TrEMBL record:
GO terms for molecular function: ABC-type oligopeptide transporter activity; ATP binding; ATP hydrolysis activity. This is Lipid A export ATP-binding/permease protein. It is found in: Cell membrane. Its main location: membrane. The keyword Metal-binding does not apply. Residues 19-336 form the ABC transmembrane type-1 domain.
Length: 607
């Protein structure tokens, strides 16, 4: 219940609905009990004439309230029986109908108010989950399955929301119904009620044994749910490769394995849960039979209990069964909800390793240089960068080249602070970026990646991502600089054309030029280009390269390059190998040095 209590903190803004729900549940429990108690004077008056009251009772104070209420009710019924038996029957039926109407009205209103609480918590937990996903560093998700995260924000949150209904019933309605019923039973016959309680702990123990493994099985089910969602996500994002390699059957088999495991877990889980209701009902009926035997003796043999009270007592005893059954079902639901809450809180309580320092500054401009000083960095065990240092002066273009795995893209990740260095520092104008607010640091930078990351939205909204108040003229100017306006203006809805999932309605070159337009419109002083042309054909590369040259004018640029033809005009070229600098200088200087850079150029010239 620890995790569930933490989730309940999300209910605080909706406490007025919880209070109204509790009030309605109190009335539900009262009317539920009264509807059975009302049978006693009715039976006494109709079938035992000695209980008829012809004289109106007198109020004697609260000490005699029970006798006063009973006698007054008997008096009213007696008056009607004396006048007209049919009228008396209508009066009695009317009372029963009113009590049951009030009981069900209170039940409806309690559910009505609970709806706002449950759905409010559902929304707020989802919002908190999504906000946390945005706050967590990139490194967190490199180790996680996307499907598992999706499962937590959908299925697990739904499970918690469903459990809210159960826990409020568990805490308020059903226990109050049982409490009021037991009070009424004790007033009728303390001896018979105490006899009933001998058997209730036995029933409770049997039910608790059934539910013992529910939380563990719920965890397994939710983990498997995340696994099969991961398979779906991978299939959708890699459909061309799956089909191109005729791997449909292989992926289908993987999916079937997952759904079969989930099928077996859910069968065990639901069957165990379904066992709760019939078990609690059978045990309840068993208790009722015991009452019949023991109470029957009290009525027929001992004469210590009258028949009308015993019949009402039986009704009240049965009235305990339904809430007891609901409590047993709710307790299972809460166990499942607690397992889901644990998975949600695992995400919500994950500390972010990339946070703003308490005294972090809000940096508005870039004046001098970016300096990377003696940094070491590793993703896991093996060092990706070793004692690496470089300076990028304002207005200059510095290119990083080298074979795959040499650590080029890691530099981009560290400058933008997607990761923090293990040793050393990255500084902007002499200030360590860990002492600059993340938002203001990233406002100084534009990013164009190797993979064109676009969204299933319009061209306007994709390009204006970094500048929401951009005018159409500004967007068009950015598209022109990126050599993208020539194809955008031919589209059916121009700027309002939807480009599909990940921009798949466009070619690779068109997508990359939109990515560049997005960076141009943001107009940052520092531009980071992470292999922005490596995935393009020759014609697209020329258009994109021209767009990049337009964009880099009068800007500070860090270019991570695979195709060396794109960085020949860079002010400085850094040649990297296994996380270390092996050469640096301008293009012609490095060619003349006849070292690693020249070998890379010659290798590419034969490609």
């Amino acid at each position: 219940m620890t995790y569930f209590r933490k989730i309940l903190q999300f209910a605080k803004p909706y406490k007025k609905f919880a209070i109204l729900n509790i009030i309605c549940n109190i009335f539900y429990a009262i009317f539920s009990t009264l509807s059975f108690i009302a049978l006693i004077p009715v039976i006494q008056v109709l079938f035992d004439k000695t209980k008829r009251v012809s004289k109106e009772p007198v109020w004697d104070g609260f000490t005699g309230i029970k006798d006063y209420v009973t006698d007054y009710f008997n008096y009213e019924v007696t008056q009607r029986v004396n006048e007209d038996e049919v009228a008396a029957l209508v009066f009695i039926c009317g009372i029963v109908v009113v009590l049951f109407f009030l009981k069900n009205l209170a039940g409806y209103l309690s559910s009505f108010f609970l709806t706002f609480l449950r759905n409010g918590v559902l929304r707020d937990v989802r919002d908190a989950m999504y906000k946390k996903i945005l706050e967590l560093p990139v490194s967190y998700f490199s180790e996680k399955k996307k499907g598992d995260t999706i499962s937590r924000i959908t299925a697990d949150v739904n499970e918690v929301q469903t459990s809210f209904l159960s826990i409020l019933e568990l805490i308020v309605r059903e226990p109050l119904t049982i409490l009021f019923t037991i009070i009424a039973m004790l007033v009728m016959s303390a001896e018979l009620t105490l006899f009933v309680f001998i058997f209730l702990p036995i029933a409770g123990f049997v039910i608790s044994v059934i539910g013992k493994q529910l939380k563990r099985q719920s965890n397994l089910a939710q983990e498997e749910n995340g696994h099969f969602l991961s398979i779906v996500e991978e299939t959708l994002s890699s459909l061309k490769i799956v089909k191109g390699f005729n791997a449909e059957q292989k992926f289908y088999a993987r999916f079937q394995e997952s759904t079969n495991r989930l099928h077996n877990i859910l069968n065990q889980l639901i069957n165990r849960q379904n066992l709760a209701s019939p078990t609690s009902e059978f045990l309840g009926i068993f208790v009722i039979v015991i009452i019949l035997w023991f109470g029957g003796n009290m009525v027929l043999v001992e004469g210590s209990l009258d028949a009308a009270t015993f019949i009402a007592f039986l009704g009240l005893a049965y009235n305990i069964l339904t809430p007891a059954k609901q409590i047993s079902k709710a307790s299972y639901s809460v166990k499942k909800g607690n397992a889901a809450a644990e998975r949600i809180l695992t995400v919500l309580e994950t500390p972010s390793s990339i946070t703003d320092a308490p005294d972090a500054i809000d940096k508005k401009d870039f004046n001098n240089e970016i300096s990377i000083e003696n940094i070491n960095f590793s993703y896991e065990e093996e060092k990706v960068l070793k004692n690496f240092s470089v300076t990028v002066p304002k207005g200059q273009t510095v290119a990083l080249v080298g074979q795959s795995g040499s650590g080029k893209s890691t530099i981009a990740n560290l400058i933008t602070r997607f990761y923090d260095v293990n040793d050393g520092s990255v500084k902007v104008d002499g200030t360590d970026i860990r002492n600059i607010k993340k938002k203001s640091l990233r406002n100084l930078m534009g990013l164009v990646t190797q993979d064109s990351i676009l969204f299933n939205d319009t061209i306007r909204n994709n390009v204006a991502l970094g500048k929401e108040d951009a005018t159409d003229e500004e967007i068009i100017d950015a598209l022109k600089i990126a050599n993208a306006w020539e194809f955008v203006k031919e589209l059916p809805a121009v700027l309002d054309t939807n480009i599909g999932d990940s921009g798949n309605k466009l070619s690779g070159g068109q997508k990359q030029r939109l990515s560049i337009a997005r960076a141009v419109l943001k107009n940052p002083p520092v531009m980071i280009l992470d292999e922005a042309t490596s995935a393009l054909d020759t014609e697209s590369e020329k258009l994109v390269q021209k767009a990049l040259e337009n964009m880099m004018k009068n800007r500070t640029s860090v270019v991570i390059a695979h195709r060396l033809s794109t960085i020949q005009n860079a002010d400085k070229i850094i040649v990297m190998q296994r996380g270390e600098i092996v050469e640096q200088g301008k293009h012609q200087e490095l060619i003349a040095a006849n070292g690693t850079y020249r070998k890379l150029v010659e290798m590419q010239s034969f490609e």
